[in-house]
Structure formats: structure tokens, C-alpha cells
């Protein structure tokens, strides 16, 4: 019998679709199209899809820029649907350990300035996703974002 707790975990949910490609700005439109195309198939509104596009442009830019700053590799994106009928989108990379949710903290601004690199932003993913979480497991960065069909909006 399945462990009831595992059913709730985004790590255990059945993947409905996934793609994997090189972590590069050239492949970014393919990743964005994967997210928006699946949202469109699920009946998400054009406005909500636009929010998702903006959020994932930010996430992917961060991953490519920071997790793969000193190396190259792949990004994998998959999605499933949770019990509340929300898209749960999982972004995995095999780059350097990089928690963009913490890295965007204003308290770290000086540290990035000293390194001479811009501080990552997570303003859009935090604003448009219902939930967003990060985990580092077995040399992989996992960013898991949940999107309901309803608009989040905000400036």
C-alpha cells in the first residue's frame, strides 16, 4: 500500500509531461513554450499564461545565469496536477547549488555587488505562483512552483 504522505509530495506525483534541454538562453523559448502550451491545453486564460511566462523567464534566466555560471548542463521541466487542480511545475538542474529564493534576499545585495554580478530576482515567480519552493537533493536543484488557473495579478 502506498504511503499516504507520499501522495501529497510534488516529488511523488505522476508526471504528465516533461522536457529536457541544454541550459542556454537559446533554449529558453522552448522551455517557456512547454509551460505555456501545457497551461493553454488545461484551459488557463491568456492573462494567466502571460503571468506564467514572465515568472518562468525569470526562473530560467536565474538558473542559466547562476547555477550554470561555471559549467554547462541541462534543465528539465515537468508538470503534474495536484488535488486542487493546480499545475505543479518542477524545474530541475544539475548545476551549482543555487537557491534563488534565498539568493534574491535584499540582505545579500552587497555580497553580489562585491562579486561584480547582478543579484538574481525572484519578484515575478513569488508574485505569480501560488506556492514556490526550493530543494537541493543529490546534486540537483529543484524549484517547484504551483499555479492555479486564477490570475494572481499585482503590479
Descriptive report:
The chain is α+β, with helices and mostly antiparallel strands. The protein is 37% helix and 23% strand. It has six helices and five strands. The chain has helices at 4-8, 28-41, 46-67, 100-103, 109-115, 123-128, and strands spanning 17-22, 74-81, 87-93, 131-137, 140-147. A five-stranded antiparallel sheet has the order 1-2-3-5-4. Strand 4 (131-137) and strand 5 form a beta hairpin. It is globular, with a radius of gyration of 15 Å. The protein starts with a helix and ends in an 8-residue tail after the last strand. The model is unreliable at 1-7 (pLDDT under 50).
SSE string, helix = H, strand = E?
Answer: HEHHEEHHHEE
Largest sheet: 5 strands, antiparallel
Q: Count the strands?
A: 5
- Main-sheet strand order equals 1-2-3-5-4
The helix/strand class is alpha+beta
The oligomeric state is single chain
Strand % is 15-25%
Average pLDDT score: 88
Q: What is the C-alpha radius of gyration, as a whole number of Å?
A: 15 Å
Helix content: 25-40%
From the spread of the alpha carbons, the general shape counts as globular
Which residue ranges are poorly predicted, with pLDDT under 50 across at least 5 consecutive positions?
1-7
How large is the count of helical segments?
Answer: 6
Could you give the distance between the termini? 47 Å
Summarize the structure.
The protein is of the alpha+beta class. It has helices at residues 4-8, 28-41, 46-67, 100-103, 109-115, 123-128, and strands at 17-22, 74-81, 87-93, 131-137, 140-147.
Amino acid at each position: 500500500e502506498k504511503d499516504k504522505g507520499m501522495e501529497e509530495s510534488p516529488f511523488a506525483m505522476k508526471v504528465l509531461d516533461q522536457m529536457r534541454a541544454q541550459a542556454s538562453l537559446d533554449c529558453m523559448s522552448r522551455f517557456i513554450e512547454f509551460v505555456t502550451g501545457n497551461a493553454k491545453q488545461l484551459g488557463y486564460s491568456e492573462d494567466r499564461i502571460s503571468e506564467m511566462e514572465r515568472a518562468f523567464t525569470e526562473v530560467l534566466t536565474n538558473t542559466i545565469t547562476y547555477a550554470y555560471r561555471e559549467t554547462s548542463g541541462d534543465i528539465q521541466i515537468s508538470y503534474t496536477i495536484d488535488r486542487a487542480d493546480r499545475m505543479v511545475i518542477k524545474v530541475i538542474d544539475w548545476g551549482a547549488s543555487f537557491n534563488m529564493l534565498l539568493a534574491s534576499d535584499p540582505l545579500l545585495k552587497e555580497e553580489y555587488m562585491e562579486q561584480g554580478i547582478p543579484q538574481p530576482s525572484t519578484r515575478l515567480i513569488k508574485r505569480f505562483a501560488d506556492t514556490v519552493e526550493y530543494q537541493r537533493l543529490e546534486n540537483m536543484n529543484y524549484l517547484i512552483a504551483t499555479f492555479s488557473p486564477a490570475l494572481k495579478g499585482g503590479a
